[in-house]
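Researcher: Please predict.
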Amino acid sequence: RDVTTRAIDAGLRVRGYLSTAFGCPFEGAVSVDRVIELTTRLLDLGVYEVAVSDTIGVAHPGQVRSMLPQLLTTIAG
């Protein structure tokens, strides 16, 4: 929060990242609700864009097709 606030106050645009949005090496499966919660928190902090990623390579197309519409509907609402 502090970093985001300082960056925005300095006139910088801030991008947020959810790097293990489809599976985490430490926590295992990641729920759609958790991704929505974290994305909402990042947007509330003032980030202009959130990258929802699968940096460990565990996602499958069905997860992406299921998650993204739910996420977009929630944040656009």
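Model: Residues 46 and 58 are 29 Å apart (CA to CA).
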